[in-house]
Every structure is written in structure tokens, then in C-alpha cells.
Design brief:
By secondary structure, the protein is α/β, with parallel strands linked by helices. 65% of the residues lie in helices and 8% in strands. Helix 9 crosses helix 12 and helix 12 packs antiparallel against helix 14. The longest helix is centred in the middle third of the chain and has 41 residues.
């Protein structure tokens, strides 16, 4: 216990280690902030919105679409949005036509919106449903108003009038030929079901397919690469921090302080375990930064495991070399090699390879990116 406390106090007095810890913490915070901002944008579906006309109904539908948290809106002309679509930055384009207000006011359910997307884009169908929902209240209101107004005097309160208007066939009457006045929920439900099947209320969304090539799939792949590169950068920062922390061991060898430790009665294995634990505790708060960004406990445990393993490796390296220059040279080379292997595993995985994925950094990047 005494060796643990002494080593921890020495770490806290080491300016180089403390400065490195603070710098790494600041960089990780900045990286996580950027990742959260990117994630907030990518958590919604990127969609292009083209507004050709103007009017209260158009603005109402556009505002409703903009405020929907499921989509991230890019507004502009068709040419601008077409370029974003073909480059893979948006999934589709929702276009509100020039006659949007007039068509809805006339009770029409076709030709209201046009959706441009790649033919094999399944997400576009979901976006189409979202866009349709943003103007469905106005469509239903004007459709119902025009329908009711078209019944005429003496027909606007009978089932037979509605049946004749929508071509359902025959008067809604019982076996004796008596007309039913709207009042029975069962009769009204049957009427609505017949109206739905008659086609008078079919919502026709016009789809236009665009050849986007492989840009969309490449954008999704780029998003995965982005997350993996961020994870690799975070892992390198954690390793760099432990590398700087263990450098004071070599300084103690050159100053003769380590000779005093070997003359103590404490077993060498217990001394090494105590010092590794102290070095680990010194660097461990760096991994706790992820908790301030709402990340899960699994991510914290993975970072702690990386810190513990790298601390043990650099502690062993420092005790073997016992020279500041040699430790810094080989430690830097080892850090670079580990980092390169990790980044190679990212691009190797795209080609189906797994060799570098089994390296420590490759495993860290894979597990970390899955938890982001």
C-alpha cells in the first residue's frame, strides 16, 4: 500500500505526465463533442425539401416537415438538392408543387407531392409516409369539406346520399326500403369502409426514380469509417497518456532511485503490481470523460481495459530499457505500430480481411465503434 501511494504522489508531481493527461483529456472532449454533433445530425434522416409554390397550406406543410425530429432538412432548388442526392448526402427529395394549395383546396389526393429517390432506396418510402403525414390533416379536412358540400340539400344527412356520391351502389336501406339516417356507429363504420374501398380517398404519392449509382452506399460506408477513425484516435490518446506516465520510471533508473526500491523488503512482484495499479489509477480518469457525454458503461470498461494493458506494457518496457532515450524511441515506435495496425484494420475490414482486426487496437476500434 505504501508503494502504491508513493508512486501515485510521484505521478501527481510529474509535470510532464500531468500536462500530457490534461492535453489528452481536452482533445478527447473536443473529439466527443464533434462526434455528438455529427451523431445528432446523422440520427435523423437527411432529406431534401423543394418548395415550388407559396401559400398558407404550403407553409404549414413545410413547417410541419421541418419540425419533425425524424428528418434533417436540406432546402434548396432542385438542381442543388439533386447534386446532394447523387453525392449520397440525402436519401431523397420531397417536392411541394406550385399548385399544392389549390390541389388540396379542391379536395384532390393525387399530384400533391413528388418524391425523387433511387429506385432501390427503401428508406424513401418511410420518408414519403412522414411527408404525407405532415399535410394529411389539411388533405382530410378539405376532402371532407368538399365531399360534404357536394351532397346537396336533403342528401347531406343520409347514408344513401353518401353512397350515391361515391358510387358505392344503391341506397343504404334495409329490406323494407327505408333509408337510414346517420346515427348508428355500425352503419357509419360500414359506410367508411365502403368509401375506403371505393378509391375516392386513395392518397397518390408520385415517385420519380433517379440513378444515383453507388453513391448512397458509399456515404453509409463513409459514416462507419468516420466512427472507426474517431475510435482509433481516442485509443491512441489513451495509449499516449500511459506512455508519458511510465516515462518517469526510466528517469528513476538514471537517477539511482530504483536501486533503493530493490533494497526494500517488499517482494518485487508486489512492488510491480502496486506501481502498475498507481499508474493505472493516475490515467483512469481520462476514460471517465465519456460518461459526461451519456455514453454507456461498456465504453468506460473498454477504455479502462486499454489503459490497464498499455500501462502494464509500458511499465515493463521502462524496466527493461532503463534509459530515457531508448524508452522514448521504442515507446514511440510501439505506439505508432499499434496505431497503424488499428487503422489498417479499418480499411481491411471493408475488403473482408480480419488479420489486423485481431490486434489490440483493431479489437478496440471494432468494439468501440459498435457502442457509439
Amino acid at each position: 500500500m505504501g508503494c502504491f501511494l508513493i508512486r501515485l504522489k510521484l505521478n501527481l508531481r510529474d509535470r510532464t505526465a500531468c500536462i500530457c493527461l490534461c492535453i489528452c483529456a481536452v482533445i478527447i472532449i473536443v473529439v466527443l463533442l464533434q462526434l455528438n454533433l455529427h451523431a445528432a445530425e446523422r440520427s435523423a434522416l437527411p432529406v431534401g425539401l423543394e418548395i415550388k409554390g407559396s401559400g398558407p397550406l404550403t407553409e404549414r406543410a413545410a413547417d410541419s416537415f421541418r419540425s419533425n425530429e425524424a428528418v434533417f432538412i436540406y432546402e434548396g432548388s432542385y438542381d442543388e438538392l439533386y447534386e446532394l442526392l447523387t453525392d449520397g448526402y440525402i436519401y431523397c427529395i420531397v417536392s411541394l408543387g406550385e399548385d399544392f394549395d389549390r390541389n388540396i383546396a379542391q379536395g384532390r389526393t393525387d399530384g400533391i407531392m413528388t418524391l425523387y429517390s433511387a429506385k432501390d432506396n427503401k428508406i424513401a418510402t418511410i420518408i414519403g409516409d412522414i411527408a404525407a403525414g405532415c399535410c394529411m390533416d389539411a388533405v382530410c379536412m378539405y376532402k371532407a369539406y368538399n365531399t360534404y358540400a357536394g351532397l346537396g340539400a336533403g342528401r347531406n344527412d343520409t347514408l344513401s346520399g353518401l353512397g350515391q356520391l361515391f358510387g358505392i351502389g344503391g341506397d343504404a336501406s334495409d329490406n323494407d326500403g327505408h333509408k337510414h339516417v346517420i346515427g348508428s356507429i355500425v352503419q357509419y363504420s360500414e359506410l367508411l369502409e365502403n368509401m375506403e374501398n371505393s378509391g375516392g380517398y386513395d392518397y397518390d404519392f408520385q415517385f420519380e426514380y433517379i440513378n444515383t449509382g453507388e453513391k448512397e452506399s458509399r456515404e453509409i460506408t463513409n459514416g462507419l469509417i468516420y466512427r472507426q477513425v474517431i475510435c482509433g484516435l481516442m485509443g491512441l490518446l489513451l495509449i499516449l497518456c500511459t506512455f508519458c506516465t511510465c516515462s518517469m520510471i526510466t528517469k528513476e533508473y538514471e537517477n539511482g532511485i530504483r536501486d533503493r526500491i530493490r533494497t526494500s523488503a517488499q517482494p518485487a512482484a508486489l512492488t510491480a503490481a502496486s506501481e502498475i495499479l498507481a499508474l493505472f489509477v493516475f490515467s483512469a480518469p481520462l476514460s471517465a470523460v465519456v460518461l459526461f457525454f451519456g455514453k454507456n458503461a461498456g465504453m468506460l470498461m473498454l477504455n479502462l481495459a486499454l489503459i490497464l494493458i498499455s500501462t502494464a506494457v509500458f511499465y515493463l518496457l521502462a524496466n527493461v530499457l532503463r534509459n530515457v532515450f531508448a524508452y522514448q524511441l521504442l515507446g514511440a515506435v510501439l505506439t505508432i505500430v499499434v496505431g497503424v495496425c488499428g487503422f489498417i484494420s479499418i480499411f481491411e475490414g471493408m475488403q473482408g480481411g480480419k488479420l489486423f482486426g485481431y490486434t489490440p487496437m483493431g479489437v478496440y476500434i471494432r468494439l468501440m465503434s459498435e457502442m457509439l
